[in-house]
Design goal:
By secondary structure, the chain is α/β, with parallel strands linked by helices. It has one domain (4-67, 94-279): Cytosolic phospholipase A2 catalytic domain, CATH 3.40.1090.10. The chain is built from 10 helices and 11 strands. The two termini are 22 Å apart.
């Protein structure tokens, strides 16, 4: 089989479907040799590259809860009391940074044994910033590539959804969610060396019945629409696109983590015949 790479999109809690996808591929003996991720996909990609297998990552799901969104209430109060104080985001992202640092033992990107790329967006330059575990084998024009950064910092930068999370500062860069510029990094996984690519997309912008009466509801909807329109063009680069139908509005619905994993697993099982044909792998009997 050709060297297979997988690109994991953002989508908040819906990104837990990536675990089901990876678990299904592993059970069916489809080897993933390269991985790239944006936002929620970056969390999964980083842990996978560190050495966690999908079944091990599912044991971390109880830690993926609403407590990860560490709202910066003191800054809100100071901004209210003092004119000129600026609030750059509702949450700080420190709890997510601590979780990733703990689970990866403070590893740096260059320490990871697996070819991986995590995507963020530089607000200053409007360019993608790609954190990798090794130099690209193929050039990727228009992107800044960084290997010397802690994994936890790279993940938090990739997950810094504008307005919801505060931007991350790295040297002279101001970084936000990679989904702003590249929500499903197929080009990055190809640059790592993948010959065949699988793209996993987890969110749709289907019509919804909502009054959008809160800032968070508006932010979630805007992100969904933006990512959906962006992905239409990007997904044409992949050899196969997997689109597990997660429940709507799962961006921050932490009660849906297990359901999203199961959704991803069911979807990859349903598509396995097609996956094998596209990737050039002979059919195998695998006990589940």
């Amino acid at each position: 089989m050709n060297d297979v790479g997988i690109a994991l999109s953002g989508g908040g809690v819906a990104g837990c479907a990536h675990l089901g996808i990876l678990y299904g591929l592993e059970k069916e003996k489809v080897p993933v040799r390269y991985i790239a991720g944006t936002s929620a996909g970056a969390v999964v990609a980083a842990l996978y590259a560190y050495g966690y297998r999908p079944k091990h990552m599912t044991k971390l799901l109880p830690l993926i809860n609403k407590e990860l969104v560490d709202y910066d209430y003191p800054s809100f109060v100071r901004a209210f009391l003092r004119r000129g104080m600026q609030v750059q985001g509702l949450a700080k992202g420190e709890r997510l940074r601590y979780l990733i640092a703990e689970t990866t033992r403070n590893a740096r990107m260059a320490d990871l044994p697996f070819p991986v790329a995590l995507i963020a967006t530089d607000l200053k330059t409007a360019r993608p910033v790609i954190f990798t575990s090794r130099p690209f084998l193929r050039p990727l024009p228009g992107a800044d590539v960084i290997t010397d950064i802690p994994v936890a910092d790279a993940v938090v930068a990739s997950c810094a959804i504008p307005v919801l999370f505060q931007p991350i500062r790295h040297r002279d860069r101001i970084l936000v969610d990679g989904g702003v510029i590249d929500n499903c990094p197929i080009s990055a996984v190809k640059a790592l060396g993948a010959e065949k690519t699988i793209a996993v997309r987890t969110r749709e912008a289907a019509p919804v019945e909502s009054s959008f009466d809160s800032l968070l509801a508006i932010v979630k909807r805007v992100m969904s629409i933006t990512l959906n329109n962006q992905l239409k063009q990007q997904l044409k680069e992949a050899d196969i696109v997997l689109e597990p139908e997660v429940a709507p509005d799962t961006l921050l619905d932490f009660t849906q983590t297990i359901a999203c994993v199961k959704c991803g697993y069911r979807h990859v099982r349903e598509r396995m015949g097609e996956i094998r044909r596209v990737l050039g792998q002979a059919e195998e009997k695998v006990s589940l």
